[in-house]
Design goal:
This protein is 22% helix and 26% strand. By secondary structure, the chain is an alpha/beta fold.
Length: 275
């Protein structure tokens, strides 16, 4: 299982030069399995660059991909109108929502491209699209077994655990500690993961102060989960747009004191997960 990060920022994309080492695009993760299955986790602004790369790679050959949404806040769906493969005939996409509540998946996605938000509707996109709302975990996609669990975030969010090709990837974005039910579910999801992407948007001081109740985590909680769940590698993910590269460096350094195998997620990072 190969993993590539196309967007690692939270809340809103940033273009400040002080943020560019980690990257300014919002959440988007590409997963490739040995059997050729392509899975995309979230569709933030990083999806645009992924789309350009895929269009160049496939160059007229049909493309099939599976798209999993953690939830539908702007920073996780902003890239959809700008994903070039949607506009190419012969491509096929499967959209999945594993939220147990909330709006209908197809209507939610199509609403992003209706007036007055966007001049081009999804109805003119020649790519074939299928929408699936999944209530029971796990889900099977190609050679992957996908477990999911509800996280503690306003209006809901789900975390994903992908088991494939002998490796385990866990994405837990947009989650705030403090809810016992959600905290236990997240630790179960992360158990023994090779790569654990965790929402570390706020500092512990922000999380206990002005940002309490906003639905995001900290490096401190990421370290706690990684140690308790036996994670192999922790990636601090979903960086705050107001945290520049130097700030993220500082958060990573603090996290490494409690969990040495910690890295700050950055655009372009690639990982190969096998046993």
């Amino acid at each position: 299982m190969k993993v590539r990060l196309w967007g690692v920022r939270g809340t809103t994309p940033t273009t400040e030069k002080e943020n560019l080492r980690y990257g300014g695009n919002t959440a988007c993760v590409e997963v490739r399995l040995e059997d050729g299955t392509l899975i995309i986790l979230d569709c933030g602004t990083g999806l645009r660059a992924l789309g350009k790369s895929l269009s160049s790679e496939f160059a007229g050959r049909p493309l099939q991909a599976h798209i999993l949404f953690s939830h539908f806040h702007w920073d996780h769906v902003q890239g959809i109108p700008f994903f070039l493969p949607f506009y190419q005939k012969g491509n096929t996409f499967f959209f999945y929502s594993c939220l147990r509540r909330g709006p209908h998946l197809q209507k939610t996605i199509e609403a992003l491209m209706r007036p007055p938000y966007f001049p081009v509707g999804m109805s003119i996109m020649p790519a074939e699209r299928h929408f699936r709302e999944v209530a029971e975990s796990p889900l099977r996609i190609g050679g992957a077994v996908v477990h999911f669990a509800e996280l503690n975030h306003p209006q809901g969010c789900v975390g994903y655990r992908l088991e494939a090709d002998g490796g385990v990837l866990v994405l837990a974005t947009d989650t705030e500690p403090g809810s016992p039910v959600h905290d236990r579910a997240l630790r179960d999801l992360a158990r023994g993961a090779d790569l654990f992407l965790y929402d570390s948007q706020y500092t512990p001081e922000q999380s206990e102060g002005e940002k309490k109740g906003w639905g995001h985590g900290t490096w401190e909680e990421g370290v706690r989960i990684a140690r308790e769940a036996g994670v192999q590698r922790l990636l601090l993910f979903h960086h705050d747009p107001d945290h520049d590269d130097a700030c993220v460096d500082s958060l990573v350094a603090q996290a490494r004191r409690g969990f040495p195998n910690t890295t700050g997620a950055a655009e372009g990072m690639e990982f190969c997960l096998t046993k």
